[in-house]
C-alpha cells in the first residue's frame, strides 16, 4: 500500500467529492490490505466510540440484501438508521445512508477531511478511510442504530473494529480466495470473525462450514442458524418466519425476487428479534420494512418486452442463484447475456452455472487493472463451445442485445458490479426498481 503525502482536496474546494475519491484511489496502489491495527489507531484519534447499537453483516453473497431489509424495517420502526454498504453502483453516496437518504457530497467531504487531518502518517486504504468517515458521520448525526456491511471477509475487515451487538453471516462460498483462503472452511473462519462472545450471531444458509460453527461455539456466541433456529414457511398469500419460539406471520411479498431472498429477509428478522429488548420493532414495521426493501442490481428488472434484468452476480454461488431465477421465468423466448467480469474472479465457474440458461452471449471487457478483456472472456466461452460476440464496451454489448432481442426474449447483464454500473450509466434506469 502506498501513502503519498500529496495535498488532499480542500474542504469545499473545486474537486469536491470527486476530487476526494480520486485522491484516495491514487494514494492506494493496493486496494485491499487487511488488518485492524492502523484503523484502530485512527479511530481512537477521531474519538470514534459508537454509543448506538451496531448490526454487522457479512457473507459471500446476500449481505447487501440483509442490510436492505434491516434498514427498511428499522426505519419503519421509527429509528434513525445509519447504513454503510459497499460497493456502490453509480454514486459513492450510495454507501452511506442516514435516515433513509444518501449522505450529501459536502458531508462526505467533511468526513474525509476529518479522517485525513487525524491520521497523520498512518496509511489507510480507500475502504478503510471510507469506513472511518461513515462512522464519523453516524456519530455526528446521532443515529439510533447502525447497520454495517463487511467489505471483505470479516475478521480483519475495517468494520470489525467495533463489537457488533448482533452479527449476521448471510452465506459462505468461494470468492476472494487470494485473501480469505481457497476452501469454504478457511473462508468460513474469516467470516465468523465478526461474531462476538455473549452476543447473538446469525448464519443464513443450510450448509454452514464446521469452522464457523466451531468458532461461534469457542467464543460463546449465541448462534441462530437458518433451518434449525430460523424457519421460512411459504404460502400463496404471504409467508411466515419462525425464530426459535417467536412467530412472524402474514409477511408480505418480497420486492426482491428469488427464493434465496426469503432466507435473507428471515436473517434480518432474526437479528431484530435478538435485539428486541434494546431495539423493539413492532410487527407492522417489520411487515412494512420487508415490503419496502429494494437492492439495485439484484435480479433488478429495468424494462419489459424484452424483459431486461441487471444482476451483480460475480461468483459461482451468486451465479447459481441467478440461474435459478432465470430458470423460473416463463420459457417464451431466447435469453441474451451481457457479460463482463474481473480477471481475478472464477470466470469458468460463473459460465458453468449459467450456460444452460443462456442462448446468446454478448461479451465485453472491463477497464482498470483488474478488468478482464473481452477477447480473454471470449476464450473462456469458446472453451465451452459457446457462441459469442465481443464488443468494445459493456454499453455496446447492451445496445446490441437490445437490438437483437425480440419482445418475448430476456436480456440479463451480469458478471460484476462494474458490468451493472456501466449498463445503468448507459441506459439510466431507475436504480431503485
Describe the protein's architecture and organization:
With 433 residues, this protein is an alpha/beta fold. The chain folds into two domains: 277 residues, 3-Layer(aba) Sandwich (UDP-N-acetylmuramoyl-L-alanine:D-glutamate ligase); 128 residues, Protein-Tyrosine Phosphatase, Chain A (Alpha-Beta Complex). Helix content is 38%, strand content 18%. It contains 15 helices and 17 strands. An eight-stranded mixed sheet has the order 4-3-2-5-1-6-7-8, sandwiched between helices. Strands 12-13-17-14-15-16 form a six-stranded mixed sheet, sandwiched between helices. The protein has a three-stranded antiparallel sheet with strand order 9-10-11, covered by helices on one side. A hairpin with a 2-residue loop joins strand 3 and strand 4. Helix 3 packs across helix 10 and helix 4 packs across helix 5. The longest helix is centred in the N-terminal third of the chain and has 16 residues. The protein is globular and about 55 Å long. It starts with 15 loop residues before the first helix and ends in a 6-residue tail after the last helix. The relative contact order is 0.11.
Question: What's the SSE blueprint?
Answer:
Elements: H1 16-27, H2 37-45, E1 54-58, H3 63-76, E2 81-84, E3 96-98, E4 101-102, H4 105-119, H5 126-141, E5 145-149, E6 166-169, H6 177-180, H7 184-191, E7 200-203, H8 210-219, E8 222-225, E9 230-235, E10 238-243, E11 246-251, H9 260-274, H10 283-292, E12 300-303, E13 307-310, H11 316-327, E14 335-339, H12 347-354, E15 360-364, H13 374-383, E16 388-391, H14 394-404, E17 410-414, H15 417-427
Parallel strand pairs: 1-5, 1-6, 2-5, 6-7, 7-8, 13-17, 14-15, 14-17, 15-16
Antiparallel strand pairs: 2-3, 3-4, 9-10, 10-11, 12-13
Amino acid at each position: 500500500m502506498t501513502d503519498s503525502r500529496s495535498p488532499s482536496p480542500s474542504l469545499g474546494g473545486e474537486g469536491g467529492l470527486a476530487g476526494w475519491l480520486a485522491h484516495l484511489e491514487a494514494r492506494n496502489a493496493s486496494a485491499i490490505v487487511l488488518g485492524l491495527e492502523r484503523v484502530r489507531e485512527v479511530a481512537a484519534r477521531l474519538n470514534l466510540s459508537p454509543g448506538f447499537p451496531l448490526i454487522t453483516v457479512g457473507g459471500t453473497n446476500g449481505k447487501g440484501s440483509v442490510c436492505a431489509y434491516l434498514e427498511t424495517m428499522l426505519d419503519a420502526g421509527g429509528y434513525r438508521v445509519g447504513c454503510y454498504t459497499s460497493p456502490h453502483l453509480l454514486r459513492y453516496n450510495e454507501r452511506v445512508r442516514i435516515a433513509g437518504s444518501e449522505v450529501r457530497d459536502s458531508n462526505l467531504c467533511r468526513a474525509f477531511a476529518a479522517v485525513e487531518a487525524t491520521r497523520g502518517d498512518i496509511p489507510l486504504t480507500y475502504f478503510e478511510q471510507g469506513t472511518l468517515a461513515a462512522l464519523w458521520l453516524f456519530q455526528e448525526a446521532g443515529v439510533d442504530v447502525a447497520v454495517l456491511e463487511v467489505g471483505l471477509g470479516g475478521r480483519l475487515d475495517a468494520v470489525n473494529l467495533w463489537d457488533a451487538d448482533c452479527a449476521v453471516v448471510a452465506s459462505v462460498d468461494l470468492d476472494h480466495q487470494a485473501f480469505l483462503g481457497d476452501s469454504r472452511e478457511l473462508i468460513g473462519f474469516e467470516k465468523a470473525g465478526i461474531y462476538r462472545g455473549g452476543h447473538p450471531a446469525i448464519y443464513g444458509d443450510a450448509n454452514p462450514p464446521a469452522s464457523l460453527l466451531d468458532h461461534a461455539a469457542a467464543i460463546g456466541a449465541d448462534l441462530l442458524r437458518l433451518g434449525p433456529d430460523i424457519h421460512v414457511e411459504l404460502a400463496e398469500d404471504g409467508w411466515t418466519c419462525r425464530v426459535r419460539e417467536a412467530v412472524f406471520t402474514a409477511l408480505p411479498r418480497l420486492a426482491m425476487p428469488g427464493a434465496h431472498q426469503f432466507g435473507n429477509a428471515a436473517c434480518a428478522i432474526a437479528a431484530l428479534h435478538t435485539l428486541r429488548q434494546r431495539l423493539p420493532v413492532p410487527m407492522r414495521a417489520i411487515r412494512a420494512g420487508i415490503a419496502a426493501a429494494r437492492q439495485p442490481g439484484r435480479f433488478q428488472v429495468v424494462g419489459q418486452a424484452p424483459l431486461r434484468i441487471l444482476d451483480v452476480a460475480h461468483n459461482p454461488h451468486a451465479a447459481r442463484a441467478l440461474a435459478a431465477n432465470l430458470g423460473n421465468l416463463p420459457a417464451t423466448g431466447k435469453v441474451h447475456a451481457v457479460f463482463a467480469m474481473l480477471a481475478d474472479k472464477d470466470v469458468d465457474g460463473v459460465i458453468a452455472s449459467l450456460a444452460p440458461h443462456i442462448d446468446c452471449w454478448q461479451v465485453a471487457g472491463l477497464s482498470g487493472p483488474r478488468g478482464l478483456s473481452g477477447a480473454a472472456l471470449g476464450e473462456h466461452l469458446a472453451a465451452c463451445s459457446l457462441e459469442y460476440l465481443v464488443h468494445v464496451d459493456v454499453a455496446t454489448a447492451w445496445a446490441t442485445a437490445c437490438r437483437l432481442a425480440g419482445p418475448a426474449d430476456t436480456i440479463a447483464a451480469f458478471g460484476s458490479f462494474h458490468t451493472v454500473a456501466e449498463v445503468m450509466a448507459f441506459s439510466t434506469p431507475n436504480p431503485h426498481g
